Amino acid sequence: MLEIKDIHKSFGKNEILKGVNISIDKGDVVVILGPSGSGKTTLLRCINFLEHADKGHASISGIEVDLHHAKKKDIHDIRQKVAFVFQNYNLFNNKTVLENVTEGLIIGRKIPKTDAIEIAKRALDKVGLSDKYDNYPSSLSGGQQQRVGIARAVALNPDIILFDEPTSALDPELVGEVLTVMRNIANEGTTMLVVTHEMSFARDVANRVIFMDGGVVVEEGTPHDIFVTPKEERTKQFLKRVLPEDYTYSI
Amino acid sequence: MTSGFNGKFFIDTFFVALSGVPITLLVTIVALLISLPLSFLLAITRVHRIPVIQRITQVYVSFVRGTPILIQIFIIYSSIPLILKIIFEKYDIGFDIYKINPLWYAFIIFSFSSTALLIEVFRSALSTVDKGQLEAAHSVGLTTIQAYRRIIIPQALVVAMPNITTTTINLIKATSLGYALSLSEITLKAKVAANVGYNYVEAYLDIFIVYLILCSIVEYALKRYEKYLNKYRVAHS
Prior knowledge:
The structure holds two protein chains of two kinds. Chain A contains nine helices and ten strands. Chain A is of the alpha/beta class. The longest helix of chain B has 31 residues, at 144-174.
């Protein structure tokens, strides 16, 4: 369904992605783990053309595209298939919660307004915000804003939703509500590619985990493969640092 | 030579000055209609660092900001007829350039200077809109133009509004320099009336009051509009 081949991206002299291949099937929930600076976010942003990859090929829902020489039309078509949830929510500040969700439907997808409102309300109900339709983002908590961000992505009915560290900007007590929503939509069969530091989500919800470091995929497999029987030394070291139960003191 | 304060002249001249308001407003509005969209487009060239244009824009802004508007008036008012004269003579167009209504010069000069000032207003306002807003708009399938029209401009306008108000007020006041073009606006009309009997104090006071009223009304209206635009920033939970 989604296949990325040999993607490269540099910022100046700094090579962030050094030839990454990933492939995702319909219904998959894939989590990308890795230390910061490993290129996870850049990979996600290149898939949605928020960054322009230097090289690479993508096949998304039957659209074949060269990531470096993509035409405007290809970019537009792929964005119709791929939704994005941002780390900083990026809700439209001048639009109400409901308008945030309908905007992409009415303007981007050309869906009639009444239908769009119907779809948007259903999506917002799903994330538990049926009482906030007419609020502006500035009056919502971070967790509520991110749930609107997820509703905005879900309402577009995309083939895949990309999540870029959806909980890292949240206060710890608000992480739970967002993860619950993500669990729910994963259980509905939504195809998801998630960059996150939430190990519990990776372990419980993902059916595949990719570990990235230094701009390449180091190891991938089921959550069991990665968390219980990691093969690569770099994976083991990373897990040792981030998993509290494996934490050992040394003086 | 009159002595003391001529009350009747003061009141009569007040209405003379007031009759200049339409011209003052016309120049202000035309200048804004030209400079608002133009300066916004030029501000975008600055924000997106479009090579050659952004450099030209930068130089233009520095020139206008670094020179008094009265000098700009003198330069444009004296150079344009010269240039036109050469062109007209070359192509044998029988048109007396000295009969051109000074209003046209006023439109050019005040658009020219307020465009430069507004470029900086819009540039700073656009830079306050997080680039995540454009990315989010792209991610839900909006084109860049749609994103600007529906998401970015409304947000930038809110930030720019106080400075647009200031620029507008300054523009209204700057049109008083139109007397240098013999433009029959508020200042010129009152001054001409005063010339007859040397009642300058009364006339200047009239001018003072007319501008004060005019600017207060415009400021009040624009502040109301600002408040209206601002509605989404006031949290209402």
